[in-house]
Amino acid sequence: MQLLDELRLNLTRRHFFSRGSHLLGGASLATLLGSAGTAAANNSAPAGGHAGVPLHFPGKVKHIIYLHMVGGPSQLDLYDYKPVMNDWYDKDLPESVRNGQRLTTMTSGQKRFPIAPSKYKFTQQGQCGMWVTEMLPYTSKMVDDLAFVRSMNTEAINHEPAISYMQTGNQITGRPCLGAWASYGLGSLNENLPTFVVLVAKPSNQEQVQAISARLWQAGYLPGEHAGVSFRAAGDPILYINNPPGVSTDVRRKTLDGLKSLNEMTLAQLGDPETRTRIQQYELAFRMQASVPELTDIASESKATLDLYGDDVQKPGSFANTALVSRRLIERGVRFVQVYHNNWDHHGNLAGRMKDQTRDVDQPCWGLVQDLKSRGLWDSTLIIWGGEFGRTVYSQGGVSRENYGRDHHPRCFTMWLGGGAIKGGTIYGETDDFSYNIAKDPVHIRDFHATVLKTMGYDHERFTVKHLGLDNRLTGVEPAHVIDKLLA
């Protein structure tokens, strides 16, 4: 027997015994249910798309827009109001509060840990009475539409593992991210665009940006088609999406047909599902040559819509422009849009940079919410806003009333969520007077992921994929709890 034939036979046997134990029963059930029943059990997909995984219970969310503030926004200067700290200005953080907790190498060598109260004014907003900084006037107007979690926490204290943890449920890269799980579960709604799109917004201030890599939007052990597709801020949205000079659409189509034939031969020989993914991605790229330019051209938007997002909306790659493109993406059937906005790593000069950061995101976030509402998309969309951890109440380096810096702080930070599945006006969790430890209702990243999955209609304990002999899931093996008080 040829070695290639033997390999193919073994792969076929393994595939049958690992995936086909209930094959005949499943086929019989599908026959009884008929095509209508199958479509109802799954999220229907267009030609060329994937159907997704049957829901465990009715889910309200069909689309997710995740706005990640890279670097770790300071909860103390945005949402976690601590007026008592004004009396602690330049006093040392008590050891009874820190309690020997881990520090980064950037402040572990400091002789002092001087308290830096926020320089910004806070006011209570909306019927819920949420305290919001003066730097977020537009967000202040929509607090009753949002749910604020002030007790988020993580074990990760440095950026790369912390962002990986927030996105994939594990500090070590290589696992599927939340967007990939959403793509895998909910399936495709549009054959001309990816199910999961990544947008990296360019901050107006770039004093201290963090690295953002494609490892954050990979599919991990899920099929490769569920990885995020990154759109660029300038030039062609996707590299090489347009035909090179001298290559017509007919020539490109003929070339792809030849590649498809070769890939289909390889698929028939080896049965590798990634070969099928490659075939599908080539075809998707061809269809995107027509759909993507139309998507990113906002000229058709009305002046009233553009005004919602602010003056920067016409600047390609700005957060405002990215927020509008996010709406256009989900309007066209994209399931998950991941947006990254950099420069929130305020180790120093917080006062000099925070005004730029908040100006970048404040009105566009508000405009996005209003836009979704006006188009009937709010009830089926989940919006997530937050970073990978919080910031310390003590200053890194020197401190003054008007300016200071804050180090990484994983023990507590604030995020908000909005959309039809979320109970607007909710304020969940409390921290101590120093915003250093959680005083009530902690929410770990695993709890956050379990809650997001429930909005989509999935039980995080049953939403698993077999990999290396294990039933792997986004929330891992440690206990995770859905925060039902956040849900409508």
Q: Name the helicity range.
A: 25-40%
Say what the CATH topology of the largest domain is. Alkaline Phosphatase, subunit A
Estimate what percentage of residues fall within beta strands: 15-25%
- Can you tell me the overall shape? globular
CATH architecture of the largest domain: 3-Layer(aba) Sandwich
Count of spatially separate domains: 2
Rounded to an integer in angstroms, the radius of gyration calculated over CA atoms is 24 Å
Give the SSE order as H and E letters.
HHEHHEEHEHHEEHHHHEHEEEEEEEEHEE
Distance between the termini: 61 Å
Low-pLDDT regions: 13-42
Derived from helix and strand composition plus strand pairing, the structural class reads alpha/beta
The total of helices stands at: 13
Mean pLDDT: 89
Features:
488 residues, alpha/beta
Kindly describe this structure:
The chain is globular. By secondary structure, it is an alpha/beta fold. The strands form 5 sheets. Strands 1, 4, 5, 6, 7, 8, 11, 12 and 15 form a 9-stranded mixed sheet that branches. A hairpin with a 6-residue loop joins strand 13 and strand 14. The protein folds into 2 domains: 31 residues, no CATH class; 430 residues, Alkaline Phosphatase, subunit A, CATH 3.40.720. It contains 13 helices and 17 strands. The longest helix is centred in the last third of the chain and has 25 residues.
